[in-house]
Amino acid sequence: MSTLSKSALTGACTAVLIAVAACGSGAPAQDAKDAPQGGPPPMPAPITLSSRPGAGPGEKLFIEKCVMCHGPNGMGTGLLARRMDVALLEEREDLPADYVIQAARMGIGNMPAIPRGEVSDADMQQIADYLASKTPKDMGGTLGGDAR
Amino acid sequence: MVSKRAQGPDPARIRQARAAFQAALGADNVFFGEEDAAAYNDKFAVDDTLHHPSGAIAPGSAEEVQAALRIASEVGIPLWPISRGKNLGYGGSAPVLADSVILDLSRMKKIEYDEENGTVLLEPGVGFYDLYDFLKARGMKHWLSTPGNSWGSVVGNALDRGVGYTPYGENTSKICGMEVALADGSLVRTGMGALEGSPTWQLYRYGFGPAWDQLFVQSNFGVVTKMGLWLMPEPESLMGMDVEFDNPEDLGPLIDTLAPLRREGLLQQSPTIGNWLRAAAVLTTRSEWTDQPGALSDEVISAIRKKYRVGWWGVSLRLYGREEVNKAAYPILEKAMNDLKPLSMRPAQWKRGEPLENSGWTGTPISFPMQNANWHGGRGGHIGFSPVLPQSGTAAMAQFKRTYDRYREYGMDYQASFAFGERHLINVNAVLLDKDDPAMMGRVDPFLRQLVADAKAQGYGEYRTHLDYMDLVASTYDFNDNALLKLNERVKNALDPAGVIAPGKSGIWPGAKGGTSA
């Protein structure tokens, strides 16, 4: 269902990973010689509710429950970038809502399952509809609907 | 009575408890479907057949936690409390005893903030990202101390003695006052919180008489429903450096250089010396470099290090506080590092008002270090082995050599760090798993047991361990025929006679008499 690509370690992915190494957050830093002039690119600040005050209901829930791993510097983004052209879930145009729910509830790849005690069925549906909002309806998405 | 050798509660008892939980918490917060139970399994388990819960309940308040405990005690159902359940590498959200019911506290997310005194009173469901957002919305006047996986709970991390990297890095030592529900459903407040209406609950740790906070840390004596925590005031400036070292033997001198600076107080943070794979496992996968099984060769290690320009060891040091003080301390730190002839040294500097380095050194929550779960390319994970060492270069080098030899003997890739406390080091090993390789997975358990035995032979014990090894590690604390474990069991039996709170946590089982569970 998704756009798989083996161009993983190029482009945006590489930029994210190099930034990770160069900023020394929890991992040893890279040699400054490898960094662009003026130092490495700054790591992005985490996306949280206060940084997107205008977020809609599904987007708010995505930020509260998911973006720590599926934001610009998150574990999920880093791992998806190894095998997909579009690693950020919010930018995907091929995410059926049902697939989002199944992946979250069962876990997928290195992602643990998200239990209903943590995210209720109603909230999960809103998150899935939000992430499916750039995906056409005939692909299981909500594009053209009123989810966003 | 719940006991160690029980197979878990029988289905009739679970049905009875389930109905009572639904009445007390609402049907929407009681989860006993097959998928519900599976969602709380340990994603990084070495043996996927172990530690399966029977279901979960999610109370929304301390009162509902009390009600759940009363029901569990009456019916005899073991509960396994989790704050957010992200204790990956140590068991995640799974219980020691199979068929326990998960007491999922992730809905409890209240934050009370005393800005003047720099304290918070948190419920267990508050994650590091939640607290970060809360503080950021109020001008970030206080910083967090975040672990490498900040997905989890602030309370849960401190209660399992997790660490961060700032001067407040030893999170459990910043706990100040708790509210705890006991097995009989009663509620106590510790320290100054025992005094009704006290304004000093989050200001003075000890109260009057015995101090109980640490008795609810890594224990199963109660369920913490609120926890006070001190936060570090935003410093005026940050100065330091990221330093890489070329050789495995550089570890000892580096520790002997940093330890006196840490003890003296010139260095107030808790730096962590990580090996090359700690950096590389986040950046790449093993198959990019070799298809050979067994531990990586020196040639492969050199190639990976060359590409990413990482040392065999690396450390990030930061000074926090007044700019004038940092400027005076920086040259001392710089000279100490230069004297060790590092491979590279990159300075870092920040002053209030400038854009902040979004890293663990500034208490910014992060999750990317967990990318090491994908080192082997497929279904992966890691399991922790973390003995406590003296702050000695000789001891650390001996531990490193002994452990590294074992990794090679068992054909495992070595990812490790040496994390400073005030007077100790913790040698944190993240043993990287390939769950698609049955031969490797078969070696993991004997390997872990060997590491525990090797450490014990030196008088070292682990500060924290995975569900699989709680009994084993508890048994290594063996002074006077495991007298401490026997004391813990006597306390357990007194406070939780039905044995319903987290049986087996830290090797403490209900119903044990005189160390029979050791």
Mean model confidence by pLDDT of chain B: 95
User: What distance separates the N and C termini of chain A?
Assistant: 22 Å
Assembly type of the chains comes to heterodimer
What low-confidence regions of chain B span 5 or more consecutive residues with pLDDT below 50?
514-518
Q: What percent of the residues of chain A sit in helical stretches (DSSP H or I)?
A: 25-40%
Rg over alpha carbons of chain B = 23 Å
Query: Mind describing the biggest β-sheet of chain B?
Result: 8 strands, antiparallel
Helical content class of chain B: 25-40%
Which stretches of chain A of 5+ consecutive residues score pLDDT under 50? 1-40
Largest sheet of chain A: none
Based on DSSP secondary structure assignment, what is the total number of beta strands of chain A?
0
Structural class of chain B: alpha+beta
Query: If you compute it from the alpha carbons, what radius of gyration of chain A comes out, rounded to the nearest whole angstrom?
Result: 16 Å
DSSP strand (E) fraction of chain B?
15-25%
First CA to last CA of chain B: what distance? 19 Å
> How many helix segments of chain B?
13
Class computed from helices, strands and strand pairing of chain A: mainly alpha
> What is the overall number of helices of chain A?
6
User: What is the number of beta strands of chain B?
Assistant: 19
Give a nutshell description of this structure.
The complex is a heterodimer of chains A (148) and B (518). Helix content of chain A is 35%, strand content 0%. Chain A has 148 residues and is mainly alpha-helical.
Structure description:
Chain B: Its cofactor is FAD. Chain B: It comes from Novosphingobium mangrovi (ex Hu et al. 2023). Chain B: Keywords: FAD, Flavoprotein, Oxidoreductase. The complex is a heterodimer of chains A (148) and B (518). Chain A has helices at 11-22, 57-65, 67-70, 75-80, 97-106, 121-131. In chain A, helix 5 packs across helix 6 (121-131). Chain A has 148 residues and is an all-alpha fold. By secondary structure, chain B is an alpha+beta fold. Chain B is built from 13 helices and 19 strands. Classes of the chains: A mainly alpha (148), B alpha+beta (518). At the A-B interface, helix 1 and helix 4 of A face helix 2, helix 4, helix 7, strand 14 and strand 15 of B.
